[in-house]
Amino acid sequence: MIIEDEELICNELAKLLENNNYEAIILKDFKNALNEILELAPDLILLDINIPFINGEALLQNLRKESNIPVIMVTSINSETDEALSISYGADDYITKPYNPNILLLRIGAVLKRTKTNYNTNTNELTYKKLKFDSQKGIIKRDDMEIELTKNEMIIFSYLLNHQNRIVTRDELMTILWDNSEYVNENALTVNISRLRNKLKEIGYENAIDTRKGMGYILS
Amino acid sequence: MIIEDEELICNELAKLLENNNYEAIILKDFKNALNEILELAPDLILLDINIPFINGEALLQNLRKESNIPVIMVTSINSETDEALSISYGADDYITKPYNPNILLLRIGAVLKRTKTNYNTNTNELTYKKLKFDSQKGIIKRDDMEIELTKNEMIIFSYLLNHQNRIVTRDELMTILWDNSEYVNENALTVNISRLRNKLKEIGYENAIDTRKGMGYILS
DNA sequence: TTTTAATGTTACAAAACTGTAAGATTAAAT
DNA sequence: ATTTAATCTTACAGTTTTGTAACATTAAAA
Fold it and tell me: Which member of A92, A170, B151, B179 has the greatest number of CB atoms within 10 A?
């Protein structure tokens, strides 16, 4: 979504984006910007701070209360001052006019890469293989199947998910579950792992958690 | 933390940073980079991709599995090609050599601003006033006080926190709590709100949740 | 001021969660 | 092949969580 008052630049930008396989929307009704953004839910916003009727910074601030849609700020101020810095509060990137088209594309690509998931404030979903994990509600969905995790199961699964690449030791898990792992039965962890595995099995993930005897567990 | 092989540039950078009230560490042992980073836990990393012994991209990828410490990629490739784009996977920003010191400072400031919290994979903390909310464990801390929320309380509190600026309707809360709000007693929500309020009171937040009769609730 | 609908509180029982213990299974080491 | 330590499974009981119902309070409307 392009938010920019100079029509010439708008069209130029839209053409550039469309030539590079992006879909471009030009926002016209500046006064209703926030609602338009939230309704259209663009993947990324190019926001000129110097547009009439609205204060770009304020718009960004208000937007950030509702959503983390990536925003690249466009400014015609060429100075490298604190002013330019302040612009970037809450923005994912910024670029100064006149911009080099290739650099702009590069930055758009980079921002999209690093924010490609989870930019709605309320979705806390992580993805693993084909399943979706809502770490807020503790629900895992796969196709039309769904399981509900308890708090402990959630903590374990989140941790394994965040460390997919390596073996997670039992001690680590004990620590994140109970902090002072001395007061709780060693077996409590094993039982919780067992319960988690049973639930994962329900949605077809028979061997998701792999035991490495003497070392720990790993998501496989 | 500066990861860069040209000593001249290293020192120049360190001086620049220190003159601007940052603390600079220069990484020497490239082969042990990942461990050093994780141990020293810098607030931000300036990473040159073209350093001997390690592949900057691979290092970034491995780092990203463990932590979201902000990384600004430094590249001497001046071309605006896909190559440069690929560099930015997982990086928070990138800059090409030779860089303008002021622009670099600007970018460092911007990256720090937008990532100032939560760059460890495992902390899910949101902040509201003086309290810290770990949405993973459902724990709210204020000073040395601490309360533990149940799943329902967590869902409500998270939602209010993510919509601090506006009134949240009872219907919205019913929907996020029970999806099909018809099967559950209207009063169940009221009771859950009540329980949440009691807990918040325990840590000194007497009137955190404000009732707007006929409209909903708002965090005040 | 009185009425009314919305929201709050409390107590309670059903359901879910969780650590323990006892015995079973497994993989590595001898 | 046997032993051993690590990990698993199951049943159980104490604890926590949760929706309901009955009654209380509040703010807005009449």
Answer: A92
